[in-house]
Amino acid sequence: MLKKLMKKFRLIECTVVEPSGERISSYKKLVEEEKDALHCVTFDWRQETIQEFCNVKADGLKKFNFVSAIHACYFIAKQDLNFHLNTIFGWTKGTILIMILGEDGFLSRLQKKFHGPAYAPKAFTYAKSITDSFRSLDISFETSALPCECDVTRCFESDSRDGKLLLDFLLQRVGCREDGPPELLKRVKEFVDSENISYTRSGRIYVEIPTQVIIGLGSKDSKT
Ligand SMILES: C[S@@+](CC[C@H](N)C(=O)[O-])C[C@H]1O[C@@H](n2cnc3c(N)ncnc32)[C@H](O)[C@@H]1O
């Protein structure tokens, strides 16, 4: 993405907001590998959540031409979205790109199905909450759907480490296989096998996780 932006901008100041130190290290490694190609980009690394960044940077911030939040808004609580999106728009004189799963996909359906006293996955924010928030803030936006599928076959292979991690991700709980409610894996498999939930191709089990691409158009007079 930076290389594409370099075609339009001669100098780029890139602020990276990322709570995970591990993620920041891998991003820095990539940047180092590409340092010649990215010669006109400077980086400001912020190891914090977008919520922390919003709270600290409320005033006097330079404006950004472009804000990108790709699969990074799931853990902004719904009740806080208006505040954070409005703050982000306050910094933006250009465009904001958000990519986030829609609630019609497998992940949301799975979490709804299994939500209950014995099992309550961490609440997730999906695309509709973002667009609802944009509407209530009177921020104009465009959306498009990006079809995506996920191969969940390994979730049901007892010796697969990737499958165990994928299951934890889908159910938003660490250690589902070892510490989850008894029968959880069996019930998840029954759900995956039920009508209109999954399909198979070449012996693999796939589910759909459609992603919404939401482009918010910044630069509203009242917000710049
Ligand atoms: C699925 S990854 C996407 C990473 C990157 N945007 C990409 O497309 O490759 C989600 C990222 O969002 C980060 N994240 C999670 N919660 C966040 C928050 N509250 N604020 C900012 N980033 C967050 C995670 O640490 C993770 O690196």
TrEMBL record:
Q: Which domain of life is it from?
A: Eukaryota
Could you tell me which SUPFAM superfamilies the record lists for this protein?
S-adenosyl-L-methionine-dependent methyltransferases
The identity of this protein, by name, is Histamine N-methyltransferase
Q: What is the species listed in this Swiss-Prot or TrEMBL entry?
A: Holothuria leucospilota
- Origin organism lineage: Eukaryota, Metazoa, Echinodermata, Eleutherozoa, Echinozoa
